[in-house]
């Protein structure tokens, strides 16, 4: 779909983009070899994703800032672009406008991930905790010692009533650990329901972190940690048999009670197989899966008796996640396993792969394949549980023409190669149409940058 998107008339003028394109073509060797050159990137109100060498010229910087100001005036968060420049300088520039059905993503400079179902999340962010019926508090959990310690550190503090604690449990839908109940029996943090900075500071010093009030206890929400389909679809959740913390994005039993100013401390009511009920974990804001064990009990945490367990890094290894291609597994057969969830086929110079060994696997939900690596794209139809699919433009064309695009998909991506170039938006719109999703708007501009220097 083409559109001259008012009121951003200046952004829709080729002259506005000339300095940006010249910046990205400064080290161009294609046109000097009589080949077309192709560039792509993004400019948002607050940043850029532009591939170029050296420093940005003042002319290019001014052009970028002008585009950013125009986006801000028009209330547009960002704009993506892709350009093809002929050896003689004739240029076609495609501007891709933001869309509610496209999720900007790393590695997709001009398009992103097509979201086919509103509000959909990759499977790891929907995973619920495994039950651990034998989980018990740590031997170090000592509610009486914890209460004595807190009352010594917080003389005169106002605690919560049993009715208030019960109301917090009802709101969260869990039974709090005895230690967490003790904490809030000693201090509600906000005496009388009103905020008191001095009292909050004293409570934080006594416990060892910035402390939430009882009214603001919360379960760590997996959806909040969702980093996007491009990252989320290629990960898998698994918890080793000797892990203290389950490798989840969040859990109704991860009760956030404080922070260190950036990361969240939570009492874990759904521990891993080797963990303790009520242990204290740290949820890193820079990570999207898992949490770190910091103390076996809240008593230990308050007394400064810390522990550390590295999160299980094996979740991205076989049998759940497999990578095939140069430098990885050399056959699909080697990846085939009933537990396989994610199959990535990377760069490969050999014979294209058949998907037959993984046909019908019950948990295979993600396939990403570099263009030209599949012997028969129609074999994708045999992957009956796919929720995310990333293929090259040719492979998508085969599936579309055959009416074989899996209808189980929740998101999709097109791996763009140079030869695919600007038609990728039209292809994306064909995919979106299968789910009755809105079209992506693209503005095509023509200009002349002159011959290569």
Reported for the largest beta sheet, the result is: 7 strands, mixed
Poorly predicted runs are 1-7, 311-316
How many angstroms does the end-to-end distance come to?
34 Å
Structural class: alpha+beta
Describe this structure in words.
The strands form three sheets. This protein has a seven-stranded mixed β-sheet with strand order 5-6-17-16-15-14-13. Strands 7, 8, 9, 10, 11 and 12 form a six-stranded antiparallel β-sheet that branches. The chain starts with 13 loop residues before the first helix and ends in a 5-residue tail after the last strand. The N terminus is likely disordered. The protein has ten helices and 18 strands.
Helix and strand layout, with pairings?
Blueprint: H1 14-24, E1 37-44, E2 48-50, H2 58-74, E3 78-85, E4 90-96, E5 102-105, E6 108-115, H3 143-153, H4 162-172, H5 178-186, H6 197-207, E7 210-211, E8 218-220, H7 229-232, E9 251-259, E10 264-268, E11 279-283, E12 292-295, H8 298-303, E13 321-324, E14 342-345, E15 366-369, E16 388-392, H9 393-402, E17 411-415, H10 424-434, E18 442-448
Parallel strand pairs: 13-14, 14-15, 15-16, 16-17
Antiparallel strand pairs: 1-2, 1-3, 3-4, 4-18, 5-6, 6-17, 7-9, 8-9, 9-10, 10-11, 11-12
Helix pairs in contact: 1-2, 3-5, 9-10
Task: Give a brief description.
The protein has 453 residues and is of the alpha+beta class. It contains 10 helices and 18 strands.
Q: What would the keywords be for this entry?
A:
6-stranded antiparallel sheet, single chain, disordered N terminus, alpha+beta, 453 residues, 18 strands, 10 helices, globular
